[in-house]
Write a structure and sequence with these properties.
It contains 13 helices and 12 strands. Strands 5, 6, 7, 8, 9, 10, 11 and 12 form an 8-stranded mixed β-sheet that branches. It is of the alpha/beta class.
């Protein structure tokens, strides 16, 4: 019962208090905390479909606390195939314990018993949770209704676990080796218990996030700046490729995590904690993973659409432009800069590059062929970069949404 109670607390924090799950302290540890987090994300990932299942059984929409109990019940009964009696009994008991929901405990019991009769197909056939209106508006003209629906269907599925191996020869039993070189596990796994973790043979990194480093030319022995580097996945890729890496981020807390990751993997980089605009050193290559709305990670963070409202887009795009201009000022002649964001929004990707080309003389995009990286031809973006959507590779489990482009100038 504890995991379900915590899951309901997490849902309230996201849906009522508008807090990201990562900012909520879970009052448990180990298996109970992991299960609670998984239950909450299961609900958030499918909340539109869940509400569609519940709609016929409610004369009026119940208060949020009751609605969340019902939502959790649908997710477990129809989505996860849990024992019907056990789930219903516990959720009714939870409803009875709290003054705000006690009077609705009978309704909870009645509705969940009806939902059981609907069967899993009721949830599977319901429309998926829609992307927020501000994301819909930014994408609909470019990819159309069918493209949006494909992304929404991808968001409704729990993502696989992707790993980046330190050595291309490293494998894990049961893992799929993706064409791009990442290792993919399709079943739940405790990362720290995987073979090779203690030896630092890999790190967790979505397959899409592992691609920007591969847009750089041979960097062995070259000076490379990883700008806005935390949590350090790309820093480790650069170091593993033999570069002389400087990893910069302004957050001491986040830089501590980078240091921990480097220590575990036995890789090295010069760590600099400062404001990016105060950094004046020149480099042969630069990787700028710019701060963004993170809309490309909704399938991993289904709480994001309920917390963010799009107001941060304008200040973020201004910051991205300024960071891109500053990064170019740190690039040695003939060097390469890779700009990337884990965003679905063109204004944080393609538009930044086309605008930068107009602002800077002799700047050009180094065209990237996605098939040379193990990707699909449809990933190619007209200006020469790569645009990845969660709906890509549906048979393999999808990808995070990402944009990336390589730039150079004389």
């Amino acid at each position: 019962m504890l995991a379900r109670q915590i899951a309901l607390t997490l849902l309230d924090a996201v849906l009522r208090e508008k807090r990201m799950l990562s900012h909520v302290t879970i009052p448990a540890s180990g298996a109970e905390a992991a299960r609670a987090s998984r239950l909450a994300t299961d609900v958030l990932r499918q909340i539109g479909a869940i509400d569609a299942v519940l709609e016929p059984y409610a004369m009026r929409k119940p208060q949020l606390a009751v609605q969340n109990i019902l939502r959790l019940g649908v997710a477990e009964l129809l989505g996860n195939g849990e024992d019907a009696h056990g789930v219903t009994h516990e959720l009714v008991s939870i409803a009875k314990k709290h003054p705000k929901t006690a009077k609705a405990s009978g309704m909870v019991n009645a509705v969940l018993r009806k939902v059981i009769d609907d069967g899993p197909e009721a949830l599977a056939s319901a429309p998926p949770q829609r992307v927020p209106p501000w994301v819909d508006k930014a994408l609909r003209k470019r990819i159309g209704a069918d493209g949006l629906l494909a992304i929404q269907k991808a968001h409704a599925k729990a993502p696989p676990l992707d790993l980046t191996p330190k050595s291309p020869d490293f494998t894990i039993e049961g893992a799929e080796v993706l064409p791009t070189g990442s290792l993919r596990l399709h079943s739940h796994a405790q990362v720290t218990a995987l073979a090779g973790y203690d030896e630092g043979a890999f790190w967790v990194q979505d397959a899409a996030a592992a691609l920007p480093v591969r847009l750089l030319p041979d960097i062995k022995g070259k000076s490379v700046l990883d700008l806005c580097c935390a949590p350090g996945g790309k820093t480790m890729q650069l170091a593993a490729a033999g570069a002389d890496v400087t990893a910069l981020d302004m957050s001491e807390h986040r830089m501590a995590r980078v240091a921990e990751n480097l220590a575990r993997t036995g890789l090295s980089a010069k760590l600099v904690t400062e404001d990016a605009f105060d950094h004046k050193v020149k480099y042969d290559a630069i990787l700028l993973d710019a701060p963004c709305t993170a809309t490309g990670t909704i399938r991993r963070h289904p709480d994001l659409p309920f917390v963010k409202n799009g107001r941060e887009v304008e200040p973020l795009t201004k910051l991205q432009m300024q960071l891109l201009d500053h990064a170019l000022s740190l690039l040695n002649p003939g060097g390469t800069l890779v700009y990337c964001t884990c965003s679905l929004l063109p204004v944080e990707g393609e538009h930044q590059i086309t605008a930068a080309l107009k602002r800077h003389e002799n700047l050009r995009v180094v065209p990237t062929d996605p098939t040379s990286l193990g990707g699909d031809a449809e990933w190619a973006s007209p200006e020469g970069g790569l645009r990845l959507f969660p709906s890509h590779w549906p048979d393999r489990g999808g990808l995070d949404g990402f944009y990336m482009a390589a730039l150079t100038r004389a």
